[in-house]
Amino acid sequence: MTDEHFMKQALKEARLAYEEGEVPVGAVVVMDGKLIARGHNMVEKLNDPTAHAEMIALTSAFSQIGAKYLPGATLYVTVEPCLMCAGALYWSKISRIVWGASDEKNGHQHITRELSPFHQKAEVSTGVLKDECAQLMKDFFADKR
Q1: Residues facing residue 123 across a β-bridge
Q2: Is 58 in contact with 92 (CB distance < 8 Å)?
Q3: Which residues contact 62 (CB under 8 A, 6 or more apart)?
Q4: Known catalytic residue at 19
């Protein structure tokens, strides 16, 4: 399976968030080539500012494998993680982080341009299906105006 395949799964989650009136960010966790967890933003639904797609997917993945670390796993997320989610990814010891669209306003890079907040062993890939990921965000905020 390719990065594009799994990012399409994250986009499905982002569309669910959109339909629920949430900022459309979706995430999936993959281990050994299998999707083991999904998540999308649930901030409004849960009335919880920490209920980001990445956090939901990570919690589900920990539960699925019965462990607090995710070595060998990859997180696919439609939008660049914020600093909070980057910290959670650091502590999860996830091996790889892949995102689609950059987030110039709220992404972790906005705050930490010189220093990566991810675990030093984590591989980071960006820009996978970035146009589709960015368009979903643009459409959501245009609908809100």
Answers
A1: 96
A2: yes
A3: 68, 70, 92
A4: no
Q: In whole angstroms, give the CA distance from residue 95 to residue 98.
A: 10
pLDDT in tens, 39-96: 999 999 999 999 999 999 999 999 999 999 999 999 999 999 998 999 999 999 999 9
Which is nearest to 75 in space by CA: 88, 50, 100, 58?
58
Whether the CB-CB separation of 8 and 27 falls below 8 Å is answered with: no
Which of 60, 57, 94 is closest to 74 using CA atoms? Answer: 94
Task: Tell how far CA 106 is from the center of its chain.
Answer: 13
Per-residue tokens: 49: 């500012």
Q: What is the token pair recorded at 137?
A: 């965000």
Q: Is pTM, for the whole model, over 0.85?
A: yes
Query: From CA 130, how far away is CA 121, in angstroms rounded?
Result: 24
Q: Which residue has the tokens 């209920």?
A: 51
Q: Could you tell me how many residues make up the chain?
A: 145
40 strand-pairing partners: 26
**From 22, 54, 104, 123, the catalytic residue:** 54
Buried b (16+ CB within 10 A) or exposed e, 87-104: ebbbebbbbbbbbbbbbe
